[in-house]
């Protein structure tokens, strides 16, 4: 298959990422009918490639992508050949598959899925989903190119995620937030329980969630060892720096005056988790120069990504209240943003636009352009409009995302920042649109 054939074949399988189904919208505590049987059958047919290398497995409500990238950069700086699998992609599927931070080529991707298709079609009892195929392809590719270690990001929650067939040496939980829940009852405990499902008896758990009321849920999974934020590792002394932030860190080792090439105090928490995870993988401290080299060049698309300085356009995929609050703080810290803002906001169904806009501190004086990404799961723009109106903002609608960004550009005079947020789908479309609009 070529890349076009690959995408067509994948699209012939049910895609829970792109469709509003009960599995795509599964909330913590409502996982009846879910199992790992399908992905387990698939990887067994492939010869269990996921067991051919050690794995660092990463889940959490926010910061997973940043943490995976930081872990990868540190491992690469330690001299290892590192595979990473992340979700979702912003522009193209290649983004999910990387070695030493470099995306898989189109030819490698097509070859990997051509091999996978032969196994699937030779075993008609298999009926994998789109994401299960993506996951199995990652495992197979990592085995083929003989990585020293794979860093694997959970797609949804943890316990029943397709990636959870791995036997991780290190299990990472970045934090527990309000995504993928109906918020009924003790929802944080239910989320924690599902994410704790990635812990194996052989795993060292690096737990970035500080809430002591949730600690016991993770401890009950009986990891081989447990490193807890603030007790065993942390970021301290945050301060702004040009293009990023400075922090001190402690874990097994002590790392002072480390520049992180991502703006935002929340990236210090992600970096602390990453440092601790790599330390536990090696069971020792990391050289200072390795940490400085790795975190000094880490970069992520769609996470407070400045795609234009004049006019100022910031893309961030924040779609939960916690992520939105982090974006707001970063805007304030790094850009001194406190006046009128122009926000292009599009979300997926199942999110709470009022909570997200409240965390963005939307109010009178802000101009919101409600939009929708090209996805079957896109939220009706009317929901965003209602939320923005209730907060006193001025709001318009424009779709597709390219039109919304064009409208935003027509309203600014160089002083106000334009923030595009709410979904990776929106950010991906906005990045493509920005390149075209700014080139005109």
CATH superfamily of the largest domain: Mur-like, catalytic domain
Q: Count of helices?
A: 14
| Class inferred from helices and paired strands | alpha/beta
Integer-rounded radius of gyration = 21 Å
Query: What kind of sheet is the major sheet?
Result: 8 strands, mixed
Q: Identify the overall geometry.
A: globular
The mean pLDDT is 92
List the domain count as a whole number. 2
Low-confidence stretches: 19-26
Beta-strand content bin: 15-25%
| CATH architectural name of the largest domain | 3-Layer(aba) Sandwich
The CATH C-level name of the largest domain is Alpha Beta
In the CATH hierarchy, the third-tier topology of the largest domain is known as UDP-N-acetylmuramoyl-L-alanine:D-glutamate ligase
- Topology, number of strands: 17
Question: Which range best describes the helical content: under 10%, 10-25%, 25-40%, 40-55%, 55-70% or over 70%?
Answer: 25-40%
**Straight-line distance between termini:** 36 Å
Description:
The chain has 440 residues and is of the alpha/beta class. The protein folds into 2 domains: 293 residues, Mur-like, catalytic domain (UDP-N-acetylmuramoyl-L-alanine:D-glutamate ligase, 3-Layer(aba) Sandwich); 135 residues, Protein-Tyrosine Phosphatase, Chain A. It has 14 helices and 17 strands. Strands 4-3-2-5-1-6-7-8 form an 8-stranded mixed beta sheet, with helices on both faces. A hairpin with a 2-residue loop joins strand 12 and strand 13. About 2% of the residues have low confidence.
Please describe the structure with a list of short key phrases separated by commas or semicolons.
440 residues, alpha/beta, UDP-N-acetylmuramoyl-L-alanine:D-glutamate ligase, Protein-Tyrosine Phosphatase, Chain A, 2 domains, 8-stranded mixed sheet, 6-stranded mixed sheet, 14 helices, 37% helix, globular
